[in-house]
Design a protein that fits this description.
The protein has 22 helices and 25 strands. With about 575 residues, it is of the alpha/beta class. A hairpin with a 7-residue loop joins strand 8 (about 255-265) and strand 9. It is globular, with a radius of gyration of 25 Å.
Length: about 575
């Protein structure tokens, strides 16, 4: 049986025949996943994660046969992110994976050298981190830095070598940063700029913490010894020491917490979402089932922050999975982004609604300067690049007219809905089947129900748990059970359209996103204002908008307000309050 399956795999990989692809899937779906040798299961996962294979299957076969089979094989054969990185490096070590703009041009790194660099960083963390024996002998690492190839290698090293890692927003308030570092018992923080090094040094002194600070850049703090330079420590390890440090690690448990990402809560502390290796890997295969044409010489532009779900999971890890190229271009301003498009020529783009609006507007400006249809098409491609053929707009509402604009010009722009808790996407409009004002259908691997009110609850292999904010150690809160199956309530209300696609109706949760994809918790701001003299009530709105609008109800009985006397002085008083809150 195993030999027959190996022959089928070999025949398909050599011929790329569509009929062989379908018969190969039938043969493997009849086999018992637990009985397959690990190497055979891994070969199937690698060889079928290919647009030629997936394109040979109809949607039902991809969603209901291939994706569930991959989930079972990933779990039974312990196919981890480390496995994925190792196999991609063995397959073609010189294939370019990451590209970074430098002062002298661009520098490219093949997947093989990048794996070696990631492993060297992981060994450095182990050598520099905790030295206890037992279940907590692995160091815990926080990444507090801007996007860079070095930072991505730190993340990959941790994710593939069993080191718990948390990427943190560089805009995290100091009190939240301090709480997160203590809550996760962080040993090492990797950072970049001198300003961030200073913040961490001050935090370490004030909090009487013992975490080490490793910098990707030289600075006065490095020269005084308060901070260590990561590359200096890594270079001091011999190849034998790297192998020895990593060989001693326990095999990565796919169900153990691998990484924690923090999102805004409606009040108080940020929410920690705890992901396992199993979440991250199964999501890659399920996302591929929903995008079967993606994976042919893909190029993505790195402008989304890697401490957010889409940049980290749907771009960085997806380019490893899809054998693509991920291009770092420096700062993430609109002008840098728009100027990078024709230079980088991405094939796909995951963007917040604001970026798609800016792209459409820039295209229209360029197209208005020419007259013929051919010239207009060329003008559009001078803006977006000649290779752009697909995209995804998420984290907010985008006008259907913008979707239709890109569809008319050869860019298959999909709509979607997602949450950090679902390792990114939950729904997506199928290619060629966009419906105005909808967010598409559930992605493969997602179990989804709507209650009588219309609130969506989700479950599935890549739906993660919340970290208990008050517990010690990596302890997760149990999800409330709506039935014998465990579900996560999204706090969003939907309705199902006649074609099976979903449309967002409203939100239950007291939180919203603007058109930049930024999460806003209005109660935090409202509470600050309502504790201020002269304010009876405050109400903040701005869902899907470029700006927030604040309504203040004055407290006319308050002595402070009564002393002001005139409407002009009242207005000046409230303006000072708003400025302070901002």
């Amino acid at each position: 049986m195993d030999d027959a399956l190996r022959r089928r795999l070999s025949e398909w990989s050599q011929s790329r025949d569509r009929d062989l692809a379908r018969s190969l899937l039938r043969a493997f779906s009849r086999a018992e996943p637990a009985s397959l040798p690990r190497d055979l299961a891994h070969d199937f996962l690698d060889l079928t994660s290919d647009p030629d294979f997936l394109g040979a299957l109809d949607r039902e076969s991809r969603d209901e046969v291939w994706a569930p089979l991959c989930i079972r094989l990933i779990e039974r054969s312990r196919y981890t992110l480390g496995t994925l990185l190792e196999r991609r490096a063995e397959e073609d070590p010189e294939r370019v994976y990451l590209v970074e703009a430098t002062a002298t041009g661009r520098r490219s790194w093949g997947v093989g050298p990048l794996r070696q660099r990631a492993r060297r960083y992981a060994a450095t963390f182990i050598a520099r981190g905790r030295h206890e024996e037992g279940p907590s002998d692995r160091p815990r690492v926080a990444l507090y830095l801007d996007n860079s190839v070095a930072g991505a290698c730190c993340d990959l090293g941790c994710l593939t070598e069993g080191i718990v890692v948390t990427p943190l927003s560089v805009h995290t308030p100091l009190d939240h940063l301090h709480w997160i570092l203590r809550r996760l018992d962080i040993d090492l923080v990797v950072t970049d700029t001198e300003e961030r090094q200073q913040r961490l040094c001050d935090l370490r002194r004030k909090g009487k913490s013992t975490f080490g600070i490793l910098s990707l850049e030289d600075s006065a703090w490095v020269r005084t010894g308060d901070v260590e330079r990561l590359d200096d420590l890594a270079a001091a390890l011999s190849p034998q020491q790297v192998e020895s440090l990593l060989a001693d690690r326990r095999e990565v448990d796919p169900r153990a917490i691998s990484t924690v990402m923090f999102t805004s809560g409606s009040t108080g502390r940020p929410k920690g979402v705890a992901f396992t290796d199993l979440h991250l890997v199964t999501k890659r295969f399920c996302r591929a089932a929903a995008l079967p044409a993606v994976g042919r010489d893909e190029i993505l532009l790195c402008y989304l922050p890697l401490y957010h779900t889409f940049g980290r999971f749907l771009e960085l890890l997806a380019m490893l999975y899809w054998r693509g190229r991920y291009v770092f271009v420096g700062n993430t301003s609109a002008e840098t982004f728009l100027s990078a498009l024709p230079e980088v020529e991405p094939t796909g783009l995951i963007g917040i609604p604001l970026r798609w609006k800016q792209m459409r507007d820039r295209c229209l400006e360029a197209m208005d300067r020419v007259s013929s249809g051919e010239e207009k098409e060329a003008a559009l491609r001078q803006v977006v690049g000649s290779g752009l053929r697909w995209g995804l707009s998420a984290a907010g509402y985008l006008d259907p007219r913008i979707f239709r604009f890109f569809h008319r010009h050869g860019v298959e722009l999909c709509s979607g809905f997602g949450m950090t808790e679902a390792t990114g996407g939950i729904t997506m409009s199928p290619a060629g089947d966009y419906v105005d004002d909808s967010v598409g259908r559930p992605l493969p691997g997602i179990d989804l129900v709507l209650d009588a009110q219309g609130e969506m609850s989700i479950g599935g292999p890549y739906v993660a748990d919340y970290l208990d904010p008050d517990a010690e150690g990596l302890v997760c809160l149990p999800r409330p059970e709506a039935s014998p199956k465990t579900w996560l309530r999204t706090g969003d209300l939907f309705r199902e359209l006649e074609n099976g696609q979903l449309q967002i109706v409203d939100r239950i949760k007291d939180i919203y996103k603007n058109d930049r994809g930024q999460t806003i918790a209005p109660r935090k701001i409202e509470r600050i204002l309502e504790e201020t003299a002269g304010v009876r009530r405050a109400f903040l709105v701005g869902d899907h908008r470029s700006w927030n609008v604040l309504l203040i109800v004055p407290d006319r009985e308050d002595a402070v307000l009564a002393q002001l006397g005139t409407p002009d002085r009242e207005r000046e008083y409230f303006q000072r309050i708003i400025a302070a809150a901002n």
